[in-house]
Design goal:
alpha/beta; eight-stranded parallel barrel; 8 strands; about 45% helix; globular; binds 2-phosphoglycolic acid
Amino acid sequence: MGRKVIIAGNWKMNKNAAEGAALVEELKHICADSGCSCCGEVDVVVCPPFTTIAAVVEAAKGTPIKVGAQNIHWADNGAFTGEISGDMLKTSGVEYVIIGHSERRQYFGETDATVNARLKAALKYGLKPIVCVGELLAEREANRTEAVLSTQIRGGFAGITGEEMAGIVVAYEPVWAIGTGKTATPEIAEAAHAHIRGELAAMFGTEVAEKVRIQYGGSMKSANARELVAQKDIDGGLIGGAALKAGEFAALIREALGK
Ligand code: PGA
């Protein structure tokens, strides 16, 4: 399909500035020692907490490692205590931004409408969005996975142009697989990815849908990355726990590339 694999580490609420910089330094050493050039063949992104971004941007300078944030507010600025704007991210050296992670949907009242508003702000500021979708265990058990994904996609991507959509990354993260050690089998994940691509094709046309990179997320690690990314519609991963240790993250990147 010619879609470039994208592996993004979602550090969640882990790693202060010193710890985050140390993790990137360790990643750089691993790559240098092994003479590995994976970061050039695949898009590698790390998404630290806001207060760790500056240190990680500095540590990643001159390397192919890209930096992402974990959220963005929809307003340009103003009375929104505790929020961070697109301009603040962009001017901090951030290139990517995760939007609508299931933990934000679950604990912080994120809806498809707020996802859509944040997505539009990210595009306005030239940030590359990673938009998360995924079903709860109860929804899967009630055979509602496809309906849930369709609703999230239709709401989340409303009012987006085809040109914009082609540059957006979608992360399929079945909520029951996040942090639980329960990975979706490659077959289960592929079926969901194919459904997502079909829904995007219905909204934006096949040509656009074929360009969209769809990551899998949920207990992805070096031991299962290869078979997941080998699936036709799986173009990388959004990694939580396995992104917090440099050695494991580097191994996962190599496996995802099939090396
Ligand atoms: P996990 O988290 O890899 O620890 O399951 C993935 C995510 O929530 O993005």
